[in-house]
Design brief:
Helices cover 22% and strands 30% of the residues. It has a single domain, classed as 2-Layer Sandwich (NE0471 N-terminal domain-like), CATH 3.30.2020.30. It is globular and about 45 Å long. A hairpin with a 3-residue loop joins strand 4 and strand 5. The chain has 112 residues and is α+β, with helices and mostly antiparallel strands.
Length: 112
Amino acid sequence: MANVSAHLRPTALRKNGEDLLEIDWSDGHRSVYHWTNLRQHCPCAGCREERDKPPDPFRILKPAELLPLKPVKIEPIGYYAYKITWSDGHDAGLFTLEHLRKLCECPACRRG
């Protein structure tokens, strides 16, 4: 997996089926992401705080939490990040290009 430099940019983003996002990068790499993995790694302060808490074994899920989360919209933020709006309305996380590249789930990146 290469480090993201100032010149490394996505050249294409596309949905692959219902579960995957693919990003083609300017260095020729194709990244693959499961939507669930992206949501689990949301970089917003609220999600980071939630991940740092110990799990609550008595937590009761809200009805909206039982539905599968899907992306509704992805929009670029300048030349450095993407904002994903999820089906539950959450849109606080800015996925920087560096963060996206680190989250790549392709076989080459998983080995590296």
